[in-house]
Amino acid sequence: MSQAPVITPTTPPRSTAAGDRRDELAHLLFDYIGGLKRRLMASVPEELKDEFGAVTWHQLGALEQLRTATETSPGATMNEIARMQQCALSSASALVDRVIRVGFAERRSDPEDRRIIHIVPTRLGLDMLARFDSARKAVALEALAPLSDEDLERLVVLMSKIVDSPEPGDVKEVAHD
Question: Dmax of the chain from CA atoms?
Fold first, then answer.
C-alpha cells in the first residue's frame, strides 16, 4: 500500500482563530458597504430623487460608460457595452433600448462602415449625468464628513488596494467583436 505524497504549503495556513477573525471582518465589511450605500441613497435630496426616479443605477452606470467611451472613440458598440457591463449581449441590448427609450442615448451609424452602430449619449443624457455627478459629489462629501482628511486618505488607499488588485481566476469575456 502506497502512502499519499506529503504536500508542503507555500504559505503557512492561518490559525483557526485568525481565519475566524478574517471571516468576521469580511462579513463586517460587507455590512458596512451596505450601510454606506443605504446612507448615500437616503441623503439624496427629494427633488433629485424625483428627477432621477425613472433612471436605474444600472442605466446610470451604462450611461457613464458611454460618456467615457465617447471621449476616445465615436461611441460604443453593443459588444463593447456587453463587455463593459459584464453581461450577455441580449442583456446589453435590453439595457441600451431602455436608455434610448428615455432619451439619454441614441444609435449612430459609423461614417466609415455603415454596418457598425455606435451607441452615444444624447445632450439630455449628458446634462442628466452632469446633474447626477454634482449631486453624487455633495452626497459623498456629506457622508465622508465624519472622517478627517488623514482618515479619508487612508480609506482611499485601502479601497484602491482592493479594487486595483488582480481578480482571482480567469476573467472571461462575455462578448466578442
Answer: 76
pTM of the model: 0.66
* Domain residue ranges in the chain: 54-161
Quickly count: other Cβ atoms within 10 Å of residue 109's Cβ. 12
User: Which residue carries 480567469 as its cell?
Assistant: 170
CB 132 within 8 A of CB 54: no
Count CB neighbours of 110 within 10 A: 13
Contact 92, 78 (CB under 8 A): yes
pLDDT digits (tens, 9 = 90+) for 122-169: 999 999 888 888 888 888 888 899 999 999 999 999 989 988 888 776
Tell me which residue of 45, 22, 25, 43 sits closest to 33, measured CA to CA: 25
Residues constituting the chain: 177
Fold of 54-161: Arc Repressor Mutant, subunit A (1.10.10)
Nearest CA to 44 out of 59, 28, 29, 57 is that of: 57
Q: What sign does the CA torsion over 55, 60, 66, 71 have?
A: positive
Grid coordinates belonging to 155:
480609506
